[in-house]
Amino acid sequence: MKSAKHLGAVLTSALLVAMSVPTAQAKSDSVLYSSTPPVIDGVANDAAWKGGDWHEMTSLMWGSAPESGDFSGRYKLRWNKDALYLLAEIQDDHLSDTYANPLERYWDDDCLEIFIDADASGGDHLNNYNAFAYHLALDNQVVDIGPNEAGEAVPQLYNDHVENKWQRDISAPHKIHWEAAVRVFDDSYQHGKDNSPVTLKEGMTLGFMLAYCDADGGDREHFLGSHEITPVNGDKNLGYKDASVFGKVKLTK
């Protein structure tokens, strides 16, 4: 009888602990639905962002690992039928925007890089639209490499794909809150044509990865992201051309 009472107490305690866990807590590979999308203003006080489902950006993709005071980052994701929503919280001790031309050495300025693969199929995307690697500059312009009219792989602007804005706290450690709404396009996309984004639905799986180019001067010094990449011939900087290194996220309600 004593052991039965003890078992009952253990089960009751476990039930109380389970009841205290937020039901909206996201799994590491899932994205929570938001019926009311966040306002993209860099303030990050929207109800959509409630919950502790932060994901860290600690995987080194290029260069050396920064000191903790130099850079740190984490992020959340949400979705509705119109877009994938991102909140990134970045701590960067020095913001650098050396190159005024958004198509010139954009990777050597501080920028947030969002990798999206609409059907999570992976594969090459350097000069096609199998996937995208959006570089969000400090002036909020959006750059990726894609084919021009001659079929050459060149940097181009995709500002209509990603609405984004960031603000920096005035108090130390001066964290940046960077919000983005990403319209997802599949491999039927044609640059400069009339394209319709994918309508997102519950149960869909997207290829996704996030990274940050940290540049304290005119050159990128560190490149950290959300997913660990297996190097090929010692090279981990593969996301801009190979969607197979992206992670996968599932849209859930």
Description:
The chain has 1 helix and 14 strands; from the N terminus they run αββββββββββββββ. The chain has 253 residues and is mainly beta. Strands 1, 2, 3, 4, 5, 6, 7, 8, 9, 10, 11, 12, 13 and 14 form a 14-stranded mixed beta sheet that branches. The longest helix is centred in the N-terminal third of the chain and has 19 residues, at 2-20. The protein has a single domain, classed as Immunoglobulin-like (Sandwich), CATH 2.60.40.1190. It starts with a helix and ends with a strand. Helices cover 8% and strands 34% of the residues. Strand 4 (71-79) and strand 5 form a beta hairpin. It has one helix spanning 2-20, and strands spanning 30-33, 55-56, 59-63, 71-79, 84-92, 111-117, 132-137, 142-147, 153-157, 162-168, 176-182, 205-214, 222-225, 247-252.
Averaged pLDDT, please? 89
Domain tally? 1
Q: How widely separated are the two ends? A: 43 Å
Number of strands: 14
List the secondary-structure elements in sequence, H or E.
HEEEEEEEEEEEEEE
CATH hierarchy class name: Mainly Beta
Largest beta-sheet characterization:
14 strands, mixed
Shape: globular
Structural class, judged by helices and strands? mainly beta
Report the β-strand fraction as a percent range: 25-35%
Q: Low-confidence runs (pLDDT<50, min 5 residues)? A: 1-26
Q: If helices are DSSP runs of H or I spanning 4 or more residues, what is the number of helices?
A: 1
Computed CA radius of gyration, to the nearest angstrom: 20 Å
